[in-house]
Each structure stands twice: as structure tokens, then as C-alpha cells.
Design brief:
This protein has 85 residues and is mainly alpha-helical. The protein contains 3 helices and no strands.
Length: 85
Amino acid sequence: MHAKGKTPQELKKNLKAAIDAHTQFCKEWKIKPDAPFSGRITFRTTPREHAALAKATIVSGKRSINTFVDEAVARYKAALFENRT
């Protein structure tokens, strides 16, 4: 969860909005609001894509497919939300 504000009042307002949005998300997805995510995701792909991913990981100099994918997801997420507040 993230909130910004130029004043304490604005920060408080934006934090409340973030909490409300998170609560609504949890309600829609039937997730307990205080339940942390484990950080584990099962990902399935074709053998051909798996091999290509392994090769891309090596070429990029990453230590593992997990690291490669985690960084790729982080970059995609940042680009996706780049212009949103």
C-alpha cells in the first residue's frame, strides 16, 4: 500500500483512500485484508518457452529464472502504473 501527500492532511486522506481501495480489493477477491502474500507464484508455460526463458536468464547474467522473472515483472508493473497516482 502506498500513499503520498504534500501536507499531513493530504497524506491522511490519501492513506484512507488507499486503505479503502485495498479493503475493496480484498472483498472482491475474497482475501483477508491482513493476510500477507507468500511471495510464491506457480507459473506454467510450454517447454519451448521454459527453455527460452532459461536462455534469456543466462544471457542477461541473472542468477536464476526467479530473479529474471521477478525483475521483469517489476519493470512491467512500473511501466503499467507509471502515470497513475
